[in-house]
């Protein structure tokens, strides 16, 4: 089965419905679609249709095969899980909610912009990257780009509230691409982009100042939630995250 049933612990900034996950019999269970962050193709925005405050989006999928895609399936589009609503033959249409437009970069995309694409996992898929939900946590910004031998080095700034989830040698998803964090300094983190990733994703179109969708490692999210214990049920604690006092009470700090 290509979905997992996990509780949402942060606001959903995606438009992936439960119908986006299927098992081998075509059954559509309730759950969250899963991706790997290994980009399969780069597509292009072919149409943008405003609809009463939200948007219909058409993506040309280029070399991404669609023979196994059905209406209601999910495709990770620049890091955002979108549900396929139409299949015109050379791509797909999807609805993008106001929430997603406000809290991801899809609201700033233009005709002709290139986007990373990945279909959801199937039972036979390899987990080549890490668990990616397509639920964007925030928008970051490219701060610096430089060459490093045959690779490229990028410095990215995350929103302050996400910095605690980004760790040295941990995983991060940028516009749907699974990456390893090389270094962390405050809200900034460092990435090394190998030639394959540079050539086969939208990383080769980034410039200093480019805004990118970020999804932190889901394990860090759930670990924080679990360590909160009973306090997780208290509304006031939801925005405070993990604190030294909470770690002390849980027995993880000895003084």
H and E order = EEEEEEEHEEEEEEHEHH
> Which bin fits the share of residues in helices?
10-25%
Mean pLDDT: 84
Our count of domains comes out at 2
- CATH fold field value of the largest domain: Elongation Factor Tu (Ef-tu), domain 3
Work out the strand percent: 25-35%
State the total count of DSSP E strands. Answer: 14
The 3D shape can be described as globular
Termini separation: 46 Å
Biggest β-sheet strands, sense, barrel:
6 strands, antiparallel, barrel
What is the class of the largest domain in the CATH system? Mainly Beta
Q: Name the structural class.
A: mainly beta
Would you identify the regions where 5 or more consecutive residues have pLDDT less than 50?
A: 1-12, 18-30
Return Rg in Å: 19 Å
Instruction: Label the CATH architecture of the largest domain.
Output: Beta Barrel
Strand arrangement in the largest pleated sheet: 3-4-7-6-5-8
- Tally of helical segments: 4
Question: What is the secondary structure topology, with strand pairs?
Answer:
Blueprint: E1 3-4, E2 32-33, E3 41-51, E4 54-60, E5 74-77, E6 80-86, E7 91-96, H1 98-103, E8 114-119, E9 138-148, E10 151-157, E11 171-174, E12 177-185, E13 188-193, H2 195-200, E14 211-216, H3 218-227, H4 244-249
Antiparallel strand pairs: 1-2, 3-4, 3-8, 4-7, 5-6, 5-8, 6-7, 9-10, 9-14, 10-13, 11-12, 11-14, 12-13
């Amino acid at each position: 089965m290509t979905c997992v049933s996990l509780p949402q612990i942060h606001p959903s900034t995606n438009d992936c419905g439960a119908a986006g996950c299927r098992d081998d019999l075509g059954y559509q269970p309730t759950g969250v679609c899963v991706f790997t962050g290994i980009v399969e193709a780069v597509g292009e925005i072919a149409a943008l249709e405003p609809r009463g405050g939200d948007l219909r989006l058409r993506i040309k999928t280029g070399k991404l095969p669609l023979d196994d895609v059905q209406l209601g399936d999910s495709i990770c589009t620049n890091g955002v899980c979108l549900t396929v609503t139409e299949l015109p033959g050379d791509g797909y249409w999807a609805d993008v909610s106001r929430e997603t437009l406000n809290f991801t970069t899809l609201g700033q995309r233009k005709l002709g912009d290139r986007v990373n694409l990945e279909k959801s996992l199937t039972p036979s898929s390899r987990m080549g990257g890490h668990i990616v939900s397509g639920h964007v946590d925030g928008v970051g910004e490219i701060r610096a780009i430089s060459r490093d031998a045959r690779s490229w080095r990028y410095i990215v700034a995350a929103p302050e509230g996400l910095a605690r989830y980004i760790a040295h040698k941990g995983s991060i998803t940028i516009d749907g691409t699974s990456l390893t964090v090389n270094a962390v300094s405050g809200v900034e983190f460092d990435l090394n982009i190998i030639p394959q990733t540079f050539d086969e994703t939208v990383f080769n179109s980034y410039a200093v100042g480019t805004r990118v969708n970020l999804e932190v490692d889901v394990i860090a999210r759930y670990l924080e939630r679990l360590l909160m214990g009973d306090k997780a049920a208290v509304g006031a604690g939801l925005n405070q995250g993990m604190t030294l006092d909470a770690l002390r009470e849980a027995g993880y700090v000895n003084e």
